[in-house]
Amino acid sequence: MKFPCIQYRLFFVFFMGLLVYPTASNAEIITQGFTNLTGTAERMISYRHQERFFITDDGTQHLMLNLGDRESESKGALALMTKQAGQTDWEEAVDLNCSNNESTADMVLENNRLHIVYSCNKEIWYSRLSYDALTSTWWNLKKKRIFRSLTQTPSAPTIAITSDQKLHVVFTRATLNKVVQLVSYSSNNPLFRWTSNGTFGTENKRPGKAGRLLNIGEGIALIYTDVSDVSGAARSTLNFTQLAENDAWSDPVVLEATDAGFHDPYGSHYSAAVDDQGNIHLVWPVEKRLVYYRYDQGSSTWSADYILDNPHNAVYSQVAKHIDGRIFLVFNVGEQLQVVESDDYGLTFSHTAFLIHPTGDPVYNWAQPRVETPAVFSGVLDVLQQLSTEPTETTEAVERLYLFSLTL
């Protein structure tokens, strides 16, 4: 699945100072430019494995951002932003109180009800919103605290819902002694009570552990990273498990085992999505390679292949699914972005486009090219890339989002 070298020669020409836009079949950048989305939190769109961008049936886009410290102390850092079809600017719909500039969130949309899980200091919270498609507005915010501790710090939560309306949450928990492990909670009545129901992976002082719950058919699955000690060295693994009908998790399948390194310090630099056939598409940077993993729902088996050698530190990636079944992978190559496409449910991929942001302006710092796309889209694929403004003697650094809109 590795792409022909000619594509990378084109990319290297760009880094020699020429703006090169390779020919991309059926792809055209129709819009690119700065959005009105700004904030002060470095984790504006972190982590990669969490879902925070989706489109409702009325064409309205919804994006959960961490805006950082707010002028109003009553405002939470996490805010759900909306942009109706035809609009240029985003508007804030709801903020999640208690959230701060370290908070991250995961979401799952079920009909017109949005389930959100997010971190805040030493707590994990669940929030629920209802959507009115006639007015394109969110309303009826309700919330319940899932977890609270004076001595343990939770982070990187993820959420999914089963066909019987049971919600499951997994998050990373660290003790005062820096012992880290993934833990699970579930609820049939999320506004009333949550129950602890298990742990995943190893319990040790190695960070770099994070989980992502996925809905597969009528059930759910968990992809998670773990770090263990092997002969005195840290080893990172990427793992997969499914929830059975008796609420028991299957024995984990190890998809990858590699030396723990700089490429994924929080264990969160992977992205996954499920297609309409129930196959899972997963991307994770492994050492000097960007690896694509595919779960075949029919045979219940995994396969893996690398997309490209990774001399440019491709650590930020996203998986997006077109409603016609095509799968798109978006990832950074250095400070720029590349898009590849599959029209056979991930069996093969071909180059689609390079997304080249403006260069040469010292005000902007593109060194951490976090990227965000909706998990499911139609027609136009909107790709958001994070950048920072350089601080000055009188102004602080500001995080911004840059937009590429592609017709595919």
Describe the structure in your own words:
The protein has 408 residues and is mostly beta strands. It has one helix at 5-15, and strands at 28-39, 53-55, 61-66, 78-83, 91-96, 105-110, 113-120, 123-132, 137-148, 152-161, 167-175, 180-189, 193-204, 211-216, 219-230, 233-242, 253-259, 271-274, 280-286, 289-296, 301-309, 317-322, 327-333, 336-342, 350-355, 364-365, 371-372, 376-377, 380-389, 399-407. The two termini are 21 Å apart. The model is unreliable at 3-25 (pLDDT under 50).
Descriptive labels:
30 strands; mainly beta; 1 helix; five-stranded antiparallel β-sheet; five-stranded mixed β-sheet; 408 residues; disordered N terminus
Task: Please give the structural blueprint.
Elements: H1 5-15, E1 28-39, E2 53-55, E3 61-66, E4 78-83, E5 91-96, E6 105-110, E7 113-120, E8 123-132, E9 137-148, E10 152-161, E11 167-175, E12 180-189, E13 193-204, E14 211-216, E15 219-230, E16 233-242, E17 253-259, E18 271-274, E19 280-286, E20 289-296, E21 301-309, E22 317-322, E23 327-333, E24 336-342, E25 350-355, E26 364-365, E27 371-372, E28 376-377, E29 380-389, E30 399-407
Parallel strand pairs: 22-28
Antiparallel strand pairs: 1-30, 2-3, 3-4, 4-5, 6-7, 7-8, 8-9, 10-11, 11-12, 12-13, 14-15, 15-16, 16-17, 18-19, 19-20, 20-21, 22-23, 23-24, 24-25, 26-29, 27-29, 29-30
- SS elements, strand count: 30
Q: Give the overall form.
A: globular
Runs with pLDDT <50, length 5+? 3-25
Helix content: under 10%
Number of contiguous helices: 1
Separation, N- and C-terminal Cα atoms: 21 Å
Mean pLDDT: 88
Strand-residue proportion: over 45%
Helix/sheet category: mainly beta
Spatial extent as radius of gyration: 20 Å
- Characterize the main sheet: 5 strands, antiparallel
